[in-house]
TrEMBL record, chains A, B, C:
Organism: Nostoc flagelliforme FACHB-838
UniProt similarity note: Belongs to the Thz kinase family.
HAMAP family: Thz_kinase
EC number: 2.7.1.50
The protein, known as: Hydroxyethylthiazole kinase
Length: 268, 268, 268
C-alpha cells in the first residue's frame, strides 16, 4: 500500500492529462456541485439518466458514479442498466447510497443496486453503510448522527461479501476493504454544513478510479484530496456559502506541497 | 402575539438544538439553495419525491415543504400523498404555489393541493396568492409585478377558508391569518435578483414550524430572519452572485444582536 | 450589420426596461445558473417542462430556450410541443444540443428537434454542431475537444438548410448564418472550468432574441456580453468557484464602457 503526497499527486496529474469522462447518474440537489468539482479536479463530467442512452454513455466514460439521493423508479432502472454495461466493459463503478436507512425504499434500492453486480466502491456515512448490511437502524435523512467507527464491522462485511472498497465518511473518514482499514483525518466540520459534500466525494472517487485500478488506493486518494481542499477552503471561508466557492477554487489550485503539508492518514 | 428578537432567537436556538429534519418536495431550480439555507439555519434537509417513499420520509420529518416550481403529474401525486400523511400525523405543511396564475395548470394544481387538506402556511408573492382565490389575474411567470398589499384581501379570505397562515412576499412582507396582519420590512431589493429566494423563505418557514406550533408566529420569525440575513448579505455583496454566498454565511452566523438591531415589523 | 458597444448596450437597455419572460426547458445541472444569469441580465426566467403547461407558458413568454443536457422522453415531448406553439406564435426559439454526438440518442434527439420546426438559433460547441449535420464524429460528453473552426462548414450548411443562425462556442466564438460569419474573441479559458457556461450563453441568447428580431445580431450581442462578463469575472476570480459568482455580479453591473473597452469581434 502506497498512499502519500507523491502517489496522490501522480493520480491528479493523470486526471489532468487524460481528462477522463465521468458518467454520473446522480441526484438533482448536487448535480451542479458534482459537475463543478469534477471539472475543478481536471476530469470531464457528464450527467445522463435516460434509459435510451445510459449504455452508450457509460461506454465512452471511464467511470460510472451512481447516487440515489433523489431516486425514482425510472432512474433506478437506468442505474441498473448503466451498471450492467459498466460491469461488462470492466469500468469502475462507485455507489453513493444517499439516505439508505432513512426509508425502506432507499434501503431496498441501495441493496438491490449492490446485488445487481459487484461494485468497485461504496461511499456513505456511517448510518448509510450500516443500513446496507441489513441491520435495523434508522438514519435521520441524509445526515449521519453516528461516528464513522459505528459502521466499521458493517463496512468490512460489505467489502468482503461484495469484493469492493467501502468508504465511511464522517469526522474521520475510514477506507475499508476485506483486508485493511485506513483512517484519513483531513477535512473540516464546516463541510457538513454544505449540501452534497459527500456526493462530491463520491464523484471524485469516480475520477480517481478512472486513472488508478487499485480501488482502495484510489478511494483513499480521493478522500484525502477532498478533505485537504476542504481544509484550505474552511480556512478562507466565513461560512458555508463561501466554503463551497473556496472549495472549488482550492481543488482547482491544489499543489503537491498542500498535500505534503496537510495529509493525515493512519493504518488501523 | 409575541414577535421580537428574543422570540426569534429562541426558535433559532431550538432549531440548532433539535436539528429538525425538513422534508422538501420542491423544484429542480432551487433544491441546492434550499438545502443549503436549511443547513445554514441549523436544520437538516431531505429532498425526496418518489411516491414509494414520501409517506415514510414525512413520518420521520418534522415539517413538510411543498413547492410547485417545476411541477409535473407524478410529482403532484407524490405531493398529495405526502401531504395526506403529514396531515394524519399532525405535522406542519407549508406550500409555495410558484407561478400560480402564470398558467392554468399551475393555478389549478395549487388550488387542488390547497383543497387536499388544510395546510399550515401558504407563502407566495402577491400575484400567486391572488390567483389562489379564483380571481382572474395573470402573473408574469414567477416574478410578481404587484405590490404585496394587492393580495391582502385574497390572503385573508384564503386564511379564513383554509384555517391557515398566508405569507405575501414582496418589498414588504405581509403575514396574514383570519384575525391579524403584520408587516415585516426587512430584506433588500437585490434579493429579487437571486432565483429561489422566495423558495428559500418557504423552506425556512418549514424549519420554524418544526419548533413552533404557532404558525403565524413561526412564519413571521422565518420571514424576519430571511430578510435580516438578506440585508446583511446585500450590504457585503457586489451583485446577485455574491449575495447568495453572503446570504448563506449571514444565515449561518446570525446573532441575536443582528436581529435586535435590524428587525422591523408593524401590526396593521 | 451593426454590432458595436452601442448596439449591444441598446439591447441590454431594452431587456432592462421590458424584463422579458424567457421560458426555459433545460437541464437539471444548470437550471439554477441559467435562471440567475437571466435575472442578472435583467430578464425574467421561468422553468416549466410539464406537457400540460408548456404551451400556455410559451404563450406568455417572449422567447423559448430548449436545452437537451439531461434529456428523457417526456421532456422531449414537452420540448416539441413548446416549440410548435412558439413557432405558431412567431416567438424566437434557441436550441442547445448539449452532448449531441456523444450518444446516438442525443444526436437523434437534437436532429429531431431541428426538424420539428425552423429554429431561430442553435448554439453548441464544435463537436455538437458538427454532429448535427450527420457527420460521423464522436464528442467526449459535453466538452468539445475541437476548435470552433472545425465546425464552420457544418454550421453554414445547418444555417442554410434550417434558415437559422448558428453559434459555435469555443476559444473563439463564431456566429454563422447562410451569408456571413463573424468571430468574437471575448471570454477566458477559466470559463470552461465552470459547468453550464455554454448553457448560460444559450439562455442569454434567448433574452437578446426577445428584444431584437435580427437573430444574427442578437446572437452576436449575447455572445459578446457573456464573453466580456466572463473576462471581468476571470480577472477577479481565484478559481472556477469564484468565477461563477463574479460572473453573475459582472453581468449585473455591466457598463457600456466595459463593452466599449473589451469588445473584440471580426468579420470573416
Amino acid at each position: 500500500m502506497n498512499i502519500n503526497a507523491h502517489s496522490i499527486w501522480s493520480d491528479i496529474q493523470k486526471i489532468h492529462n487524460s481528462v477522463p469522462l465521468i458518467h454520473n447518474i446522480t441526484n438533482y440537489v448536487v448535480m451542479n456541485n458534482t459537475a463543478n468539482a469534477l471539472l475543478a479536479l481536471g476530469a470531464s463530467p457528464v450527467m445522463a439518466h435516460a434509459i435510451e442512452e445510459v449504455e452508450d454513455m457509460v461506454s465512452i466514460a471511464r467511470a460510472l458514479v451512481i447516487n440515489i439521493g433523489t431516486l425514482s423508479e425510472t432512474w433506478i432502472e437506468a442505474m441498473q442498466k448503466a451498471m450492467q454495461k459498466a460491469h461488462e466493459l470492466k469500468k469502475p463503478i462507485v455507489l453513493d447510497p444517499v439516505g439508505a436507512g432513512a426509508t425502506p425504499y432507499r434501503t431496498a434500492t441501495a441493496q438491490k443496486l449492490i446485488e445487481t453486480i459487484n461494485l468497485t466502491v461504496i461511499r456513505g456515512n456511517a448510518s448509510e453503510i450500516y443500513s446496507l448490511v441489513g441491520e435495523d437502524t434508522q438514519t435521520k435523512g441524509v445526515d449521519s448522527t453516528q461516528q464513522s467507527e459505528f459502521a466499521i464491522e458493517a463496512a468490512k462485511s460489505l467489502a468482503q461479501r461484495n469484493k469492493c472498497t467501502v468508504v465511511i465518511s464522517g469526522m474521520k473518514d475510514l477506507i475499508v476493504n476485506a483486508d485493511q482499514v485506513i483512517q484519513i483525518e483531513n477535512g473540516h466540520p464546516l463541510m457538513a454544513k454544505v449540501t452534497g459534500m459527500g456526493c462530491t466525494a463520491t464523484a471524485l472517487i469516480g475520477a480517481f478510479l478512472a486513472v488508478n485500478t487499485d480501488a482502495f488506493i484510489a478511494s483513499a486518494h480521493a478522500t484525502a484530496v477532498i478533505g485537504i481542499a476542504g481544509e484550505i477552503a474552511a480556512h478562507q471561508a466565513t461560512g458555508p456559502g463561501s466554503l463551497q466557492i473556496h472549495f472549488l477554487d482550492a481543488l482547482y489550485k491544489l499543489k503537491k506541497e498542500d498535500i505534503e503539508e496537510k495529509l493525515k492518514f493512519y493504518k488501523i
